[in-house]
Design goal:
The protein is an alpha+beta fold and 136 residues long. Helices cover 24% and strands 26% of the residues. The protein is built from 2 helices and 6 strands.
Length: 136
C-alpha cells in the first residue's frame, strides 16, 4: 500500500525560506523540516544560542500540534549548531526546555552535528524532528 504524503505550512511559524514545506505526514509519520530560532515574521528570535534553541523547539512543537501531535510523539531529533563553542549553551537550553515538556525525563534520541553554516549567517541552531502519531 502506498501512502501519499501530505504537505503543510501551518500558522504560527515563519514562512519557508524557499520551495519546501515545514511538515509532511505519511501514514503515522510526521516529518518536521529543520526549524531555527525564527519568529513568525521570519525575524531571528535572538542573537544567542539559548534564545534560538528555545524558539526552534517552540516552532517544532507548534508544527506538531498543527498535526494533532505533541513533543511526546517525537521519535528522533537532529540538531545542527554552527560552532562547537555553542554546545554547552545548546545543552543548557535543551535541558531547560525538556524539563518543561518531558517531565518524565524520557527524551527522544538526538543526533547533534556541528556544521559550517546554516541558510542565514545570523542563525546558530537548527532542529528537525520525526514523530509518530495516528490522527483519529
Amino acid at each position: 500500500m502506498t501512502i501519499a504524503p501530505n504537505y503543510e505550512n501551518p500558522p504560527g511559524v515563519g514562512a519557508p525560506f524557499s520551495a519546501y514545506s515545514h511538515v509532511s505526514c505519511a501514514g503515522e509519520l510526521i516529518f518536521v523540516a529543520g526549524q531555527c530560532g525564527i519568529a513568525e515574521d521570519n525575524s531571528v528570535a535572538g542573537s544567542d544560542v539559548r534564545t534560538q534553541t528555545i524558539r526552534a523547539y517552540d516552532n517544532v512543537r507548534t508544527i506538531l500540534e498543527s498535526q494533532g501531535a505533541t513533543l511526546r510523539h517525537v521519535v528522533r531529533f537532529v540538531s545542527y549548531l554552527t560552532s562547537p563553542d555553542h554546545v554547552e549553551d545548546f545543552y543548557a537550553a535543551r535541558e531547560e526546555y525538556f524539563a518543561r515538556h518531558y517531565p518524565q525525563q524520557q527524551y527522544p534520541p538526538n543526533t547533534l552535528l556541528i556544521v559550517q553554516g546554516l541558510v542565514r549567517k545570523d542563525l546558530l541552531v537548527e532542529i528537525d524532528a520525526t514523530a509518530c502519531w495516528r490522527k483519529e
